[in-house]
Structures are given as structure tokens and as C-alpha cells.
Write a structure and sequence with these properties.
The complex is a heterotrimer of chains A (95), B (493) and C (490).
Chain A (H helix, E strand, L loop, with lengths): L4 H10 L6 H18 L34 H5 L5 E2 L2 E5 L4
Antiparallel strand pairs in A: 1-2
Chain B lengths: L8 H9 L5 H14 L6 E4 L1 H16 L10 E5 L26 H8 L3 E6 L39 H8 L5 E6 L5 H7 L2 E4 L19 E6 L2 H11 L29 E5 L9 H16 L3 E5 L7 H16 L19 H12 L2 H14 L5 H24 L2 E5 L15 H5 L6 H5 L4 E8 L5 E8 L4 H15 L10
Parallel strand pairs in B: 2-3, 7-8, 7-9
Antiparallel strand pairs in B: 1-3, 4-6, 5-6, 5-10, 9-11, 10-11
Chain C lengths: L5 E3 L2 E14 L38 H13 L7 E2 L2 E4 L9 E4 L9 E6 L8 E13 L3 E3 L6 E5 L6 E7 L6 H18 L11 E10 L9 E6 L2 H20 L8 E5 L4 E4 L1 H4 L7 E2 L6 E2 L2 H9 L5 H10 L5 H9 L1 H14 L4 H19 L10 H12 L5 H14 L3 H8 L7 H14 L1 H8 L5 H12 L6 H12 L1
Parallel strand pairs in C: 12-13
Antiparallel strand pairs in C: 1-2, 2-10, 2-11, 3-16, 4-5, 4-15, 6-7, 7-10, 8-9, 11-12, 13-14
The chains are: A mainly alpha (95), B alpha/beta (493), C alpha+beta (490).
The complex binds magnesium ion and zinc ion.
The site of zinc ion has 3 residues of chain C, from loops.
Chain lengths: 95, 493, 490
């Protein structure tokens, strides 16, 4: 596995992070370094091992079906960079 | 009374209770210290009014005989905890100006126990870092300096760097930290204080900005073991708002503190003796072993065969979870927004996240995105989750034989700012001893052991069985009594 | 086996259809937060800090949503997975605050099942089984409004986090009719179970329509997915248009791209979303904020016990035990309300009257409701009033004609039939004395016709019956009148 700048761009766009050419150039070797280093996990024999689910044995607890929240529009919008008429506003999306 | 800021949590609590001084005096003392210590850059926000209000409440409570466990104790809160009405940034420009309308469960528990807040503590951005250099608000300086006469700026470690500096510089008697892969223990070791990461699930994650959900755990950092026990008691507890919170009672850790560890079996994992670690670390480790023996513990060499895979495992799982946890920072509902003129929604996302996140956070989001992406999931993430299970199994096995493990906390003393910031993997290696316990969700404490030749603190780590914080604290107390660590940095700030 | 084909220049094409139906789970609160699921509230008033994905917020699952998914799975004779878990589906969009949708990819709560559809309600032989691939639980997204501002889209998170069941069929359907029957049947079952209100106008049920075409016998072709189609009519239209579009593309030497498309009801066509698509890679992984969902036996037993009699079982019982014609049974069981109404009626008139009751309901009542633009829920006539009317006919108090009059009055006034009969004296009479008297008058008034009849003009018998009836304003019992007239005319 080797990450080239094209891959960096693909990953960056999946992660929605704008990268300049310079950044992409710089990131490629960095990521290769780190990914090359974690490669060593491939040598571990994990046959018959189930992936870890809960690190400390625990049971999923469920909520009762009751309305206990909501009705706090001011709080929900309080930190919004742009809120209008009770909505969050974002650059127009054309579908 | 000499100086309230020299006092720890227990001393303040008892002094206020016994009327030797008022909570207000204490609060004012620490507020003054915080004001004078700007050079350390330990705080991102100072909240003297909060500390004073809690202090006055404590003094009133004393008058009416209704003191709470932490009445009169002013604390520092790591900026990863959402604090109602007080800017919470997780060390990131992305959250500049974000004032939560809610209080994290952990900070809420501390305040309910009577504690006040001196301010929010600087940290590595989204807790990703081991030197506090990734903070958007600039690095925190360690109050410590090498004894070589030079005054090179040293790191307090990270990600809880502001927390560590604040306690070491006597700006707060105790602080909250968070530990995903060593972020409480490594900084504690770097500045000569005590910090414990409890069992995963002991402290609620609700209202704590998420880095890696399966690893994040809050814990206290303070001068000594007793203070950590007191603070952890107040922080911990079942929280129905966190699915991963453990529904178990919180023991009275302080009351049960005992340094009598005679007959305890303490394991020394041979895989923790690794190449390239300075022998000052081995020396202090040997010293620690001797102290434990002196305390009547039985020392046993044990093996944790998958230790060398812990760090790479961590650097797959943590970034993967982070890449998803940090997707919510999109400039729509809170925090920073950068919307290029005439750009569409996707342009806004990309510009906002490019401007809002720092280099290391971007690097980890990229790694996490990559290891989860089509075709790589099994090779990386799933493989890492299996290796993680093996690492946890290693611990289960040795804990059938021993009660505790004693290891170094970090592979070196504090290093200078800028020394490692350009070599990610060298930086990651700081947590080589801390990460395994994080992956297994086990309680682990770092206690100061002594100074190295340059006069910088070194710490050792005690790891215990799941939910056996008491055993960890007791052994740490026995250790503390023998180490008699009293060194503290000269105030130069 | 459907013989639906698209006739192209190169011959006949078979259409292969699979549906992913998103059904909103009936619950008071959302899947992972305590905010209300009520439809049509003010924007962002049914949003919790969890739904808005504030930093440090954590999901806690709603027990009722899990229960409803399990009951639905059982109703579809599907495999229930005692161990399932939630995964994160990662992508960025303004209606998705977390930057991921909590869904189930690797271990869904419900596995394979099936639904039986009837293409012709009168004919059991037209039955076809459509496979269910899986059912998983997931969060709904918020809503974007594009028409409120020239340069901004507005985001309303009220729907965000509402529980959905994604019910994924196998590619077993071969015609728009089969797809339509499948969705109607699925909707009926969900409504019987009570796990979804099936309200397509309000978006409680939406389908992603997967369509491909192939020459009969060939391998599956490349499919396209047309998202969020919200009515049976549109689903069928999408299939027709998309299938013929694909045939045109293929026959003009092109190839089908696996892509997401959008149905435009105004233009009556599907449109590619490739523009917005760009290489999706959802990076699914288990949600570390949630533990696996483990279902205990007692819980499963309770779920099964809580299931009502389902449409197929009901239909067969109506045909078997009640001896109703296949058509009646199918119509009465198609909608849970109809079956409930019919069974309320049956409870009062008794099973012996099942056929008459079902015929009356299907022809008289439905006819009237259609005419009045009403439904069973808004019907002016209650099951017990209907039962009373049928009894009055059965015991001869009302003739067919009279019962129709009474029913009309019931529809207008909502009165009980008994009261109407009393008030307006609409009782039918079989009193021979009274009838003989009327006959005598009629014969006296038509002496010459009596003579003609007796002279052999038998055809005139009907005339006398009509005259007598008329004289009795329709209340005379026709049978008795006939008998007495024969005597009197000799
Ligand atoms: Mg779909
Ligand atoms: Zn879906």
C-alpha cells in the first residue's frame, strides 16, 4: 500500500478538508509513514478472535418511549453561525 | 498560614471545614496565582466569578453545617468538558466562541460536590497530542526547567498539558484531565504530579467532547494519591445518558485508602523493557520495584506478548473513531464557519474544516478516513479490533496471577517544545507505556518517582484490574510514601 | 410468474425490481433522543441537543423502536437476530448533523423473510411470494428547504433522528403491478402490526426503487436506484419510465451506470443525481457509543404474543370458517380498518349472516361512502346501527326496497334504523286482512281488467300486484300479496 497525492485528495474530499497542492504533497509521505508503521499489525495471527465490542463487559440499556426532550429551539440555535426564522441557514443546496 | 496555593484538595477541604481559613481566601489565593501565571498559557478561559461564587457558597454551607465533599475547593477544568455558558473549544479554533447550553456530567458532578471552577485548561486540539503543541491557543509551558541553567521551554506533556502545568505551578489544587491513550498519565509524569485514568465507563462521557469514544475516559490530576481519590469519587458515577457508563456503585476510595500492600503480587511486564529507552527510565523503574518490595509486595516478572502492537492498534482505532466523531464540526450549527464567496455547501464544509482544524487533527482524520475506506476496513480497522481483543486478553491472563502491574509512565522525561513536533511517530511513542491500559479499559495511575539528572520529574505507572481503582490507589499510596517526592519547580513565570 | 415485458427493437425485455422501503416506526420519541416525533411542528422545536449533534452528546436507544422492528420482522415471518448492533454510515450533508447516520449494516436486527402478494384478489392462484432480505433500524435525516431564501437553504431538524425501519426486498418483482401490490401489502401488514402508520403523504413510508432490465433468462442487468419515491402510483411510474429508459439506452448501444436517480413527478421522469453523487464511500463501522443489542427470550415471546391476526390469516379464515367468496375476503382484509369494522358488525349479526353482512358492507356501505366522499373512520353509520338494519331485513320488518330507504335516512341523519322505521312507519305489513281489503278495492276499481284477466289475459297479474303495492305505498309484503291476489282473481 502506498498513498499518492491523488489518494490524499480523495481521502481529503471524503473528509471534507480542503488541501492545497503543497499540503497534499506533504501529507502523502506522512500518511505513508504512519500507515507503513501500523502495517505491522498484519503479522498478528488473529484467527478465531472476535473483534472487541465492549472493552469492559456491559449491557445496552434502553430508554422508555417517552417524550422528555425538545422544545428548546433557542438553545439548539444559540451557537449557530447563521440562523434565520428558526432554521439553520446554509449555502443554497441545488438538488 | 503560609500560602493557600501550596495546599492540596484534602488540606483545603479540611481547613475550610475546621475554619482555619475561609473558602474565599482559598479561591482568591488561586485566582491571584492564575492571574500571575499567564506566561504558562495553561488556561484558555479564566472564571474567577465561578470560583468565588462556589467559595462563598462553601463558607455559607460551613456556617449552616452543610459542607459538601469538595466545598471550598477551586478546580481547573480541561477545555474538553462542556461547561454551561463558558467557552468550550477542546483546544480547537473550530469551536472558538462556542458556549455550550449544557454542563458535562463530570464537571456538573464536581460542582454539585461543592467545587468551584477557576477556568478552562488548555490542551492539545481535540486531545490529539502528547505535548500540548497542537492547541490552537498555543502550547502550554511546563513550570519545570532543566537544571542546566538554560531556560529552554519544556512541554508539560499532553493532551492534558494545561491541567498538568496548572497543578505543578500551584495554580489549582486539582484539575480534570482526560485520557484516551495516556493524556492524563504522561503529563502527570512530566510535571511531577499524580493522575489516574479510572476504568473505562467509571466517569460519564456525556458532555465531554469526543475524541475516540471507545477509549476516552475522564480522571483527576492532583498533588497526591489522596487528592486523586477524593476528586475521582466526586467525578465518577453511573450516568443513564451514556450507554457505555458502568452501572456500579462508586466506592468510598478515600476512606478505604491504605498503604498496606503486604502480600500483593505486582507484575513487571518484560515487554515494557524496550530498545532506545534512556536508562534513567530503567533506573527509576528499578527504584520503584525496590520500594514496592519494601512495602511488602511480591514482585513477579510477567509477559504481555502483544504489547508491541498496542501503539499501532491505537493509531488505527483512535483516528478511525475520531474521523467520524469530528464530522459534526461542519460550520452549520455551532463553531466556526468559512463560506467562500459564491461557494456551495461542500465548499463551505471543506473551507470550514481546513481552517478550523490544525495539522495534527487533520492528519488523524485523514488516517482514520483512510483505514475505514472501502477495501481497507478489514485489513486495518477490523484487524486492529481483533488485536485489541488480544491485548485485553493478555491483561486478563496476567491479572489471574498478579494484582497490579508496575511500569514506566513515559519513555522519557519532559522534552523541549518543538523537539518532536515534526516527527509524528516519535511523538506517538510517548504513549507506548500508557496506551495498552487504555486499549484494555483498565485503571492506571501515574505517580512521581523522582528527578532525573537534569532535575526533571519522572513517573511510574501502576495498572490494576478492571474496577479495582482501590487497589491501584493503595499501591500508589505505598509508592508515594516511599518516594517522598517533594520537588517543585522554581517560580519563574 | 409475471409476463410483463418491455417491447424493444431487439425484442422483449424483462424488468427486475427490488425495493428498499423506509417506514417510520410508530413511537412517541425518537430512536436515540427524547424529542417528539409529532408531524408538522414548528421548525427545530422537536430537536434535542443529541439530534443537533452538540459536542459530547450521546445516543440512548428507544426500547419501543426495537420492539416494533422485532414485531414487524415476526409479521414478515423473518428471522429475528438476537444479537445485532448499530453502525455509523459516514457522509456529509446539511440534514445530517452528526456527519453520520446511525444505521445497521453488518448485523441488522431482522434477517430474511417474505411477503405474499395477490395480483388478482379473486384468485389464490395469482399469489406470489416476494423475499425480504433484511430489516434494519436507522435514523431519519432532517429536512432542507430551498425555496425560502434566494441564496440559502434552511435546515429543520425536527425529523432528524426519528426511527426508520429500512425494509429491503430481494430483487423478486417483475412488473410495476407486482411492485405496487408488494408495497400495498407491506403497508397493510405494518398497519395491522401497528409499527408504522403507512401515511405516505406525510412521508411515513418512502421507497428507494431499484430497477434493471434484461433479456428473459439472462443475468441481472446493472441497476439504478431511484430514491425517496412516496406513493404507490409514483413507484409504479418510476419502474415503467426507468425500465423503458434503460431499454432505450441499451438498444442504442449505451450501457447503464449504477447510480442514484431522482423521480420528478412534474416532468414524469427520473433524473440522474450523479452530480451530487461523487464517489460515495460510507466508511461504515460499529458505533462505539452504543453496545450490541441483545434480545432476551422473554422479550421475543412478548413480541410474538402481541401480534394481531394478520391479513393473510384473516383472509383464509373468512374464506374458510365464514365461507365468504375470495373477493369479499380479500376486500375486507386489505385494510385493517375494514376488517375491524366488519368484525364489529359480525359480532352483532352473528357468523351465520357473514355473507349478507359482507355483501352489504362492500356494495351498499362502500358505495354510499364513496358517493359521500367519506371513509369508514368518518362513516355516519356505526357497525351496531348497520347490524340493526340487517336484522330488520332478516326478520321481514323491512323489504329490500324499504331497507334502502331507511339506509339513506341513516346516512343523512345518523339515526338508528329502528327509530326511523317507527317514526316514518316504514314497517312492511303481512296482515292478510288489510291486504285483502286493498285487493278488493283495486279489483273494484279495475272491474274490466279483472274480466280480461279471467278471460285468460294472465299478463295482467303483474298489473294487479303493482296496483296493490302502490296502494300500500310499498309496505306490503310482496309474497303475501301474490298469494292473496291469486286467490282473489281465482
Ligand atoms: Mg437505499
Ligand atoms: Zn436507509
Amino acid at each position: 500500500m502506498s498513498v499518492d497525492t491523488a489518494t490524499v485528495r480523495k481521502i481529503a474530499s471524503l473528509a471534507r478538508i480542503a488541501v492545497s497542492d503543497a499540503e497534499a504533497e506533504a501529507l502523502a509521505p506522512e500518511l505513508n509513514n504512519i500507515l507503513g508503521w501500523v502495517e505491522q499489525l498484519q503479522e498478528v495471527d488473529v484467527s478465531g478472535v472476535a473483534p472487541m465490542t465492549a472493552v469492559i463487559p456491559n449491557h445496552l440499556r434502553l430508554r422508555e418511549d417517552k417524550v422528555t426532550d425538545g422544545g428548546i429551539r433557542e438553545d439548539v440555535l444559540a451557537n449557530a453561525p447563521n440562523a434565520e426564522h428558526g432554521f439553520f441557514a446554509v449555502p443554497k443546496v441545488i438538488e | 498560614m503560609s500560602n493557600v496555593t501550596d495546599l492540596g484538595i484534602a488540606a483545603i477541604r479540611d481547613g475550610v471545614r475546621d475554619g482555619r481559613f475561609s473558602a474565599r481566601e482559598v479561591a482568591e489565593g488561586f485566582i491571584g496565582a492564575v492571574e500571575k501565571a499567564k506566561a504558562l498559557n495553561a488556561f484558555t478561559v479564566e472564571t474567577p466569578e465561578h470560583a468565588l461564587a462556589a467559595a462563598d457558597a462553601a463558607d455559607a454551607a460551613r456556617a449552616s453545617g452543610e459542607l459538601k465533599p469538595l466545598s471550598g475547593v477551586p478546580l481547573g477544568i480541561k477545555d474538553l468538558f462542556a461547561t454551561k455558558g463558558v467557552q468550550t473549544t477542546a483546544g480547537s479554533r473550530m469551536l472558538q466562541g462556542f458556549e455550550p447550553v449544557y454542563e458535562s456530567t463530570v464537571s456538573g458532578n464536581l460542582f454539585a460536590a461543592g467545587a468551584g471552577m477557576l477556568g478552562k485548561l488548555n490542551m492539545d486540539e481535540f486531545a490529539m497530542g502528547s505535548s500540548n503543541e497542537t492547541s490552537a491557543w498555543g502550547p502550554v509551558l511546563s513550570p519545570w526547567r532543566r537544571n542546566d541553567g538554560g531556560n529552554a521551554a519544556l512541554t508539560p506533556g499532553g493532551s492534558s498539558g494545561g491541567s498538568a502545568s496548572a497543578v505543578a505551578a500551584r495554580l489549582a489544587p486539582g484539575v480534570t484531565g482526560t485520557d484516551t491513550g495516556g493524556s492524563i498519565r504522561q503529563p502527570a509524569a512530566f510535571v511531577g504530579i499524580t493522575g489516574i485514568k479510572p476504568t473505562y465507563g467509571r466517569c460519564s462521557r456525556w458532555g465531554m467532547v469526543a475524541f475516540a469514544s471507545s477509549l476516552d475516559q475522564a480522571g483527576p490530576m492532583a498533588h497526591d494519591v489522596r487528592d486523586c481519590a477524593i476528586m475521582l469519587e466526586a467525578m465518577a458515577g453511573f450516568d443513564s445518558k451514556d450507554s457505555t457508563s458502568l452501572d456500579v456503585p462508586v466506592p468510598n476510595w478515600e476512606a478505604a485508602l491504605s498503604s498496606d500492600i503486604r502480600g500483593k503480587r505486582i507484575g513487571i511486564p518484560k515487554e515494557y523493557r524496550i530498545e532506545g529507552v534512556p536508562e534513567e527510565i530503567d533506573r527509576v523503574w528499578e527504584q520503584g520495584i525496590a520500594w514496592m518490595r519494601d512495602a511488602g509486595a511480591e514482585i513477579v516478572e510477567v509477559s504481555l506478548p502483544h504489547t508491541k502492537y498496542a501503539l499501532p492498534t491505537y493509531y488505527i482505532i483512535a483516528p478511525a473513531e475520531a474521523s467520524s466523531n469530528l464530522a459534526r464540526y461542519d460550520g452549520v450549527r455551532y463553531g466556526q464557519r468559512v463560506a467562500p464567496e459564491g461557494g456551495n455547501l461542500q465548499d463551505m464544509y471543506e473551507a470550514t474544516r481546513a481552517a478550523g482544524f490544525g495539522k495534527e487533527v487533520k492528519r488523524r482524520i485523514m488516517i482514520g478516513t483512510y483505514v475505514l475506506s472501502a477495501g481497507f476496513y478489514d485489513a486495518y480497522f477490523n484487524q486492529a479490533q481483533k488485536v485489541r481483543a488480544l491485548i485485553a486478553r493478555d491483561f486478563e491472563r496476567v491479572f489471574e496471577d498478579v494484582d497490579l502491574l508496575l511500569t514506566p509512565t513515559a519513555p522519557s522525561a519532559a522534552f523541549g517544545l518543538g523537539e518532536k513536533s515534526n516527527d509524528p511517530i516519535a511523538m506517538y511513542l510517548n504513549d507506548v507505556f500508557a496506551v495498552p491500559a487504555s486499549l484494555a479499559g483498565l485503571p492506571a495511575i501515574s505517580v512521581p518517582a523522582g528527578l532525573n539528572a537534569q532535575g526533571l520529574p519522572l513517573g511510574l505507572q501502576l495498572i490494576g484490574r478492571a474496577l479495582d481503582e482501590q487497589g491501584v490507589l493503595n499501591a500508589a499510596l505505598a509508592f508515594e510514601e516511599r518516594a517522598g517526592f517533594k520537588a517543585r519547580p522554581e517560580a519563574w513565570w | 410468474m409475471s409476463d410483463y415485458r418491455i417491447q424493444g427493437a431487439t425484442g422483449a425485455w424483462e424488468v427486475v425490481i427490488g425495493l428498499e422501503v423506509h417506514a417510520q416506526v410508530t413511537s412517541a420519541a425518537k430512536l436515540f433522543s427524547g424529542a417528539s416525533t409529532e408531524f408538522g411542528a414548528e421548525p427545530n422545536t422537536q430537536v434535542s441537543l443529541i439530534d443537533a449533534a452538540m459536542p459530547g452528546m450521546l445516543p440512548i436507544p428507544n426500547a419501543e423502536c426495537i420492539r416494533q422492528a422485532v414485531r414487524t420482522g415476526m409479521a414478515l415471518e423473518a428471522q429475528i437476530n438476537p444479537w445485532s448492533r448499530f453502525d455509523r454510515k459516514n457522509y456529509f450533508y446539511a440534514d445530517l448533523p452528526q456527519g453520520y447516520q446511525i444505521s445497521q449494516l453488518y448485523h441488522p436486527i431482522v434477517g430474511e423473510g417474505e411477503i405474499e402478494i395477490l395480483l388478482d384478489p379473486k384468485d389464490e392462484a395469482s399469489a406470489k411470494r416476494i423475499g425480504i432480505e433484511r430489516i434494519h433500524l436507522e435514523q431519519d435525516a432532517g429536512k432542507l428547504m430551498h425555496d425560502q431564501h434566494p441564496s440559502y437553504s434552511y435546515v429543520d431538524l425536527n425529523r432528524c433522528g426519528v426511527a426508520l425501519m429500512e425494509i429491503v426486498s430481494k430483487p423478486d418483482m417483475r412488473s410495476p403491478e407486482e411492485a405496487g401490490a408488494y408495497v400495498r401489502k407491506l403497508r397493510a401488514i405494518l398497519r395491522y402490526v401497528g409499527s408504522c402508520d403507512g401515511n405516505m403523504e406525510q412521508g411515513s413510508m418512502r421507497a428507494d426503487v431499484n430497477v434493471s432490465v434484461r433479456k428473459p433468462g439472462d443475468e441481472f442487468g446493472t441497476r439504478t436506484e431511484t430514491k425517496n419515491v412516496n406513493s404507490v402510483r409514483f413507484i409504479m411510474a418510476v419502474i415503467e419510465h426507468e425500465a423503458s429508459r434503460q431499454v432505450d439506452v441499451l438498444e442504442s448501444g449505451g450501457s447503464i451506470v449504477q447510480e442514484t436517480r431522482l423521480w420528478d413527478p412534474d416532468k414524469n421522469e427520473t433524473r440522474s443525481l450523479r452530480s451530487k453523487e461523487e464517489a460515495h464511500d460510507y466508511r461504515y463501522f460499529p458505533d462505539p457509543d452504543l453496545l450490541p443489542v441483545e434480545l432476551e427470550d422473554a422479550f421475543l415471546v412478548e413480541c410474538r404474543a402481541s401480534l394481531p391476526e394478520l391479513p393473510d390469516a384473516k383472509r383464509r379464515r373468512y374464506e374458510g370458517a365464514l365461507g365468504l367468496p375470495a373477493y369479499n375476503a380479500a376486500v375486507l382484509t386489505a385494510e385493517v380498518e375494514t376488517a375491524r369494522w366488519f368484525e364489529a358488525l359480525l359480532a352483532e349479526v352473528g357468523d351465520a349472516q357473514a355473507l349478507r353482512a359482507s355483501n352489504w358492507l362492500i356494495s351498499d356501505l362502500f358505495g354510499a361512502l364513496n358517493r359521500l366522499g367519506k371513509t369508514l373512520e368518518t362513516s355516519p353509520v356505526s357497525p351496531s346501527q348497520a347490524a340493526e338494519l340487517l336484522k330488520l331485513v332478516a326478520d321481514g320488518t323491512l323489504s329490500g326496497t324499504l331497507s334502502k330507504q331507511v339506509f339513506e335516512i341513516m346516512l343523512e341523519t345518523g339515526q338508528d334504523p329502528g327509530a326511523i322505521v317507527e317514526e316514518r312507519g316504514l314497517k312492511q305489513t303481512s296482515d292478510t286482512g288489510a291486504i285483502d281489503k286493498v285487493i278488493a278495492d283495486v279489483m273494484a276499481a279495475n272491474a274490466n281488467k279483472v274480466a280480461e284477466y279471467r278471460g285468460g289475459k294472465d299478463k295482467l297479474f303483474g298489473f294487479f300486484v303493482g296496483q296493490t303495492m302502490k296502494a300500500m305505498a310499498g309496505k306490503g309484503n310482496p309474497a303475501v300479496i301474490n298469494e292473496l291476489l291469486k286467490k282473489a282473481l281465482g
